[in-house]
Amino acid sequence: MFGQVCQIIERIGLTGFCAGGRYTMLFLPQIKEFESGVAWYGFPYTEGSEIQPDRSASLIDQLDALVLMIHGTRDQYSNVTDICK
């Protein structure tokens, strides 16, 4: 792939971790060019922001793309203050 001079991309997917997983779940139903996605965590029932207030779970009826959601039932939320430890 990287050695090729010209590539034709006919299909595109989306993936994201944590907040990116939430955005993956939000964007897949709304941007039809994405044909599949993988959401690593992302908290589908968490409220958003002023810009994107929807819960990603509320958009599931609009989902046409294939999506793989990866969550751990015993995983704890990451505390931002622990990032630099």
UniProtKB/TrEMBL annotation:
The answer to whether the entry has keyword Hydrolase is yes
Listed A to Z, the keywords are:
Hydrolase
Q: What molecular functions are annotated in GO for this chain?
A: hydrolase activity
Which Gene3D superfamilies does the entry mention? alpha/beta hydrolase
- What Pfam families would the database entry show? DLH
UniProt keyword Lipid biosynthesis present: no
Q: Which InterPro entries match?
A: AB_hydrolase_fold, Dienelactn_hydro
Q: List, for all copies, the residue spans of the domain called Dienelactone hydrolase.
A: 8-78
The name on file for this protein is Dienelactone hydrolase family protein
Q: What is the lineage of its organism?
A: Archaea, Methanobacteriati, Methanobacteriota, Stenosarchaea group, Methanomicrobia
